[in-house]
């Protein structure tokens, strides 16, 4: 049996049950990971899945990493032998096995004695308004509507706002100065609404907003739930390493970015310093997954597994191994220069 399959077979949650089934029903299972696109006109990467000996079982997969697809009358011979038990230890992901055995061994050794993001912080998604353009106002719009500034809260609407080390009050002032729609209409249940707000809610925009799925399924519809002021923000999708940006201006954020709340006694400065290490860059690649177009996606459940500032004893050979591993993972998601 042979299939062309999405490259998500190397990391997606649904790939785990599939490969468990394959290993329990076929004597031979091989996955050919193809780095260059099988279908160049599509954003989807594709790999090949081959299985033989139905009715048998296998204790390992064969993963063949090939640069480009070319027709052959049989699967490639060369490959990495991936024990099913070891695959399970990597959260049932094949992507880490694109790395060399030395890189995987070093990663496991360092990660075993290091802190992960989930040990020092909680990572979650931001709020969902149901109608972003209605609930986020420009300063000029709020003034025109007569909405008081104390009802508007500075908000990070997407990852483009995550620049530098911190979002500061100067950042928020720049949003105001450039009349950007980065101010959430933050209303609370039980508070009497000013006349200007009632008029805004009853405007055509408000009548349209309340019909959206999220709005019509909450009471009252105009109170956006789960609005928090985190210690930091983490980019959801990134080109290189995900950005970890301190929140020095008490901003809130939509679900286009992750919100990070530090555990008691933790310092965002120390966390950012550790976040910038090469090993943490590698960990983001290993624990995250490619989205397409060269992007790396980091779900909350993946983010908490990221190893923070893992030490490799500063040996040059290990440093080179980590750097090469980062480059390898980025090439496989088409981010590295010249990889397209």
Please provide a written account of the structure.
- This protein has 14 helices and 19 strands.
- With 340 residues, the protein is of the alpha+beta class.
- The chain has three domains: 2-98, no CATH class; 117-123 and 234-332, no CATH class; 128-216, no CATH class.
- The strands form five sheets. It has a five-stranded mixed β-sheet with strand order 1-3-2-4-5. Strands 7-16-12-14-10 form a five-stranded mixed β-sheet.
- It is elongated and about 75 Å long.
- The relative contact order is 0.14.
- The mean pLDDT is 93.
Give the number of DSSP strands. Answer: 19
- Strand % is 15-25%
Q: Share of helix among residues? A: 25-40%
Biggest sheet layout: 5 strands, mixed
Show unreliable segments: none
Strand order of the largest sheet: 1-3-2-4-5
The chain-level mean pLDDT equals 93
Count of spatially separate domains? 3
Shape: elongated
Terminal CA distance reads 30 Å
Characteristic key phrases:
340 residues; 3 domains; 24% strand; five-stranded mixed sheet; alpha+beta
Quick overview of this protein structure:
This protein has 14 helices and 19 strands. With 340 residues, the protein is of the alpha+beta class. The strands form five sheets. It has a five-stranded mixed beta sheet with strand order 1-3-2-4-5. It has a five-stranded mixed beta sheet with strand order 7-16-12-14-10. Strands 8-11-9-15 form a four-stranded mixed beta sheet.
Layout of helices and strands, plus pairs?
Blueprint: E1 2-6, H1 15-25, E2 26-34, E3 46-54, E4 60-66, E5 80-83, H2 84-89, H3 101-112, E6 115-116, H4 117-120, E7 121-125, H5 132-135, E8 136-137, H6 139-145, E9 152-156, E10 166-167, H7 169-177, E11 183-185, H8 195-201, H9 204-209, H10 213-216, E12 232-235, E13 237-238, E14 244-247, E15 252-253, E16 257-262, H11 268-275, H12 278-287, E17 289-292, E18 295-297, H13 300-303, E19 307-308, H14 316-332
Parallel strand pairs: 2-4, 9-15, 10-14
Antiparallel strand pairs: 1-3, 2-3, 4-5, 6-19, 7-16, 8-11, 9-11, 12-14, 12-16, 13-18, 17-18
Helix pairs in contact: 3-14, 12-14
